[in-house]
Design brief:
Layout (H helix, E strand, L loop, with lengths): L4 H8 L1 H20 L1 H5 L2 H9 L2 H4 L12 H28 L2 H6 L2 H5 L5 H34 L5 H29 L2 H21 L4 H7 L3 H6 L3 H4 L3 H23 L11 E4 L8 E4 L9 H8 L3 H18 L1 H5 L2 H10 L2 H6 L11 H9 L3 H17 L1 H5 L3 H5 L5 H33 L6 H29 L2 H22 L13 H6 L13 H21 L5
Antiparallel strand pairs: 1-2
Helix pairs in contact: 1-9, 2-6, 2-9, 4-19, 6-9, 6-10, 6-11, 9-10, 9-15, 10-11, 10-15, 11-12, 11-17, 16-25, 17-21, 17-22, 17-25, 22-25, 22-26, 22-27, 25-26, 25-29, 26-27, 26-29
Amino acid sequence: MFRSVYTKTLWERRSSIVWWLVATLLLGAWLVAFYPAIRDSEQLQRFIEDFPPELLSLFGIDPAIYTTGFGYLQAQLYSLIGPLLIIGVTVSAGASATAKEEEDGTIDTLLGAPLRRTRLLLEKLAAMATLAAAVALVLALVLVMANPIVDLKLSTLGIVGINLGLVLLGVFFGAVAIAVGAWRGRRSVASAAAGALAIAAWFANGFAPLIDWLDTVNRFLPFHWYLAGDPLLNGPTAWHLLLAAVTAGAVVLGVIAFRTRDLRSHEPLIRMRIRRRPHEESGRIEPAATDGLLRSVYGKTLWERRRSIWGWIIGLGALAALTAAFWPTLQSSGDAMQGLLDAVPRELLAMFGITDPASLTTAEGFLSARLYSSVGSIALLTFAIGAGAGALAGEERKRTMDLLLGTPTRRRRVARDKLAGIVTLVVLIAASLTVVVIIAGAAYDMGLSVPFTITANTGLALLALFYGTMALFVGALTGKPGLASGLAAGLAVAAFILNGFGAAIDGIEPFRWLSPFFWYLQDSPPLARGFSPSYWLLVAGTLAFGLVAVPAFRRRDISS
């Protein structure tokens, strides 16, 4: 199985890809199942015809074709869910391609084999592309099986075209992650760079019909190349060739960076410098002044994410500012918006975390739906889970835990400092987001309550810390960061679905209170209410996971 880097990479991701494929199958089948309700709704068709097309573009809807199988799937599946799934797979694999080997201290062992650097990187790329193709294949099979059942009226060429474009889109962002990882040698930097580019390109594609200059910029971005020419309708397009060519360019840059850079096999625990007095041959070794944070495990945790944290802050801040900027336009069409929401099946909206459709016509509801119920919460949870999984288990995977414990620092102190570092980072992101929302709300006359804004972001931070400390505990218990992040993320997705579907399906509603997302979101926008008593459940869960992580870490044999 391990006769090549390609097969080794696939084997290492065998567990995580299964969960990705299951999630893809369930989400794809659920979306397709709602198509007959959309197609047969005359009320929805009337409201779409009367609704400003520029505003519909915010939701990925083309009013001329939305009630067709092509239009519905392009808006709901291939403009958001499909890209989100496949980019999540490829960016994760791409960021880990070479940077993870460096961080784990295995790159020197791997290159000790008769294997050129170029071949190593290309085989990592091939494995990533295989994973992306597997996700797209599941979506294609769902469409092929559903096509005659729900009368989607899709051609085989169209199904092939859109999923080929989806693979190319995912591989492009994965190649960007590979190139940055090969250049910098850090997974966090690689994933942050590729993720930020993906979010920017997605927003540009959605808002391009509203802003002339953005429409011009969008023509040079990958989301436009992926969907241009209607591949779901017409099959593969010439734009896909452009996307493939740019991907090849990113790969070439990655190969050059990887071949010409001095690779590191481990991360130094503490950075030192030699301080010499004039005319002295020898010097005294002291911690560098710029690395003062490295005098404690807590400071080291903050220092390791000193660069990537800015990407998360800027990305979430930009998301909040752009969303708020479109509120005045949406406000002018409030009645039409309400009619559109009344016509869309409640279950479909619940799938995206919108359990109270009427609230979307308010400033608090509109901003909460985009920022706190979907993209914003996903982003902060991704950060917190990654930080929690890497805090203790990541040190073991990098083979630096034995060095860390070789210092006069008790295990209890290590675990506590790691936990404190995660809390500090999450609070910093949430506080920055709070400031942006308050400023944007005032700038666009949204009438947001400052105390409610603070409590909404407090709840978001608590939700992220709940799953971040869960990942910390699993990592402390098992020493496996992949299992820690996969389990925490899987439970988060399950809880999100339970909360959304519980709001729309009577049979599931009694179990909805089990979801931490319900503790945070409930049935009203977070920006429209103060501190909810259910937030204490998030506090209790965070404290519980943090407390049990300490003894779990203290009692386990640490792998070195």
